[in-house]
Amino acid sequence: MTHKMRLADSPFEMIKNGEKTVELRLYDEKRRALSVGDVICFERMGEGCESLTVKVVALHVYHSFEELYRSLPLLSCGYLECEIESASYTDMYEYYTSDEEEKWGVVGIEIEVIPDIC
User: Fold this and answer.
1) Whole-angstrom Cα distance, residue 36 to residue 18?
2) Close Cβ partners of 3 (under 8 Å, ≥ 6 residues apart)
């Protein structure tokens, strides 16, 4: 199955360059439809019309971002080496509320870039 998701410039580039291999999201209805082996077409937000195709390698489901941050390597989640010490699960509250997190749980979508089919 193929899914579509949008990404801001920075995470888009990090995935494209192989620096980010885990995308963090709420485990909402849309993400519960994901399965290992599925394809995600990421569309870059902002200027231009660029897409990136990835395959879902693994799904890491947790009750909270705090639990996810303790379990997954943050370098794979889009942090730079110099940001690791200050990285916090509360960074995700820029995108999601704690109520959404409590309602849905969270997922780390482990991905690998594949030839673009979007």
Assistant:
1) 19
2) 30, 33, 34, 38, 39, 40, 41
The residue extents of the domains of the chain are 2-113
pLDDT tens-digit map of 52-85: 999 999 999 999 999 999 999 999 999 999 999 9
Question: What spatial distance separates the first Cα and last Cα of the chain, rounded to whole Å?
Answer: 12
Angle at 32 between CA 10 and CA 4, to 5 degrees: 45
Report whether 40 contacts 113 (CB < 8 A).
Answer: no
- Give the separation between CA 100 and CA 20, rounded to whole angstroms: 24
Token pair for 49: 């019309």
Tallying the residues shown for the chain, one arrives at 118
pTM over 0.85: yes
CATH superfamily of 2-113: Hypothetical protein. (2.30.130.30)
